[in-house]
Amino acid sequence: MTKIFITGDSWGVKEWTPENCNDRAEEIDKAAHRGIHTYFQRSGFEVHNLSSGGSSNGESIDRLIQYIDKETGLLDRSQDYIFWIITDPMRDLRPYRDPKDKLSSEVIANKGWNNLLVKLFHQQCERANNLAKQRDIKIHLIGGITSFTVEDVKQYENLIPLIPSWYDLLLFPPERKMVPKRSIWTSQTSDVHIDDIDLEHVRIAAGNKLSKRVVNEFWNINEFHRIVHNSNGFFKLDNSHPDRHGHKVLFKKLMEYINRGTS
């Protein structure tokens, strides 16, 4: 039986509703619908879902490493599939507020919010690629909260950019015009807030221009989230996650890929 391994944040866990948004990890299996997990299971696949709400990209890779190493022999490289749903790269800087003001220092060093996001994205892609190379496996990337392009990951020979943007599958034409004009972009700033950045530190260290740019880049991300998630039907249940129908759209694309590989 072909096995499906899924790692990622809350987008890979299930269909979220106002009623189940506070489920503890041990209660997730009781959820009525687990999105692509449920669709794969109903289609006869053995599913191992390592996704966890609020997870960073680094934590998603950590869980995958631990699971593969613990369950030696479980993964059949010839027929199984690993899907990694990409989240907000900024989560790898948690805790955002610390005595050394790490977040503000990183923003300054990378000359902006967007540049820092790209750097963090590539750091975890490098880790994932090294893992895949060491274990002689391929990891299939799905753009979740954070989207990317095939060009962005072409240097990682063991990473397959299968679905660069789940959003692209779900957005309606008018909403597509709002997509940021850059290759790696995130649809929301997750749990980081503008107050987590010491803007006075940024201003003193790097000047008013960078301080203003950071604020603009931050709020541009949140403006996309506010407008799209409040209007797009696939996000209607909690305004933050695709519902089961959004998962079904993704599942069909993944099945097209799997069927091409087995035909």
Category by helix and strand content: alpha/beta
The main sheet orders its strands as 2-1-3-4-6
Q: Could you name the CATH topology? A: Rossmann fold
Tell me the domain tally: 1
Q: H/E element string?
A: EHEHEHHEEEHHEHHH
Task: Please identify the oligomeric state.
Answer: single chain
Global outline: globular
Measured distance between first and last alpha carbons: 16 Å
Query: How much helicity do the residues have?
Result: 40-55%
The CATH architecture category equals 3-Layer(aba) Sandwich
Strand content: 5-15%
Largest sheet: 5 strands, parallel
Give the helix tally: 9
Write up this protein.
There is one protein chain. By secondary structure, the protein is an alpha/beta fold. The chain has one domain: Rossmann fold, CATH 3.40.50. Helices cover 43% and strands 11% of the residues. It contains 9 helices and 7 strands; from the N terminus they run βαβαβααβββααβααα. A 5-stranded parallel β-sheet has the order 2-1-3-4-6, sandwiched between helices. α1 (36-42) links the parallel β1 (3-7) and β2. α2 runs parallel beside α4 (113-135), α3 (102-109) packs parallel to α7 and α7 (199-206) crosses α8 (208-231). The longest helix has 24 residues, at 208-231. The chain is globular.
Please give a quick description of this structure:
With 263 residues, the protein is an alpha/beta fold. The chain has helices at 36-42, 57-70, 102-109, 113-135, 166-170, 173-176, 199-206, 208-231, 244-262, and strands at 3-7, 46-49, 81-86, 139-143, 146-147, 159-163, 185-186.
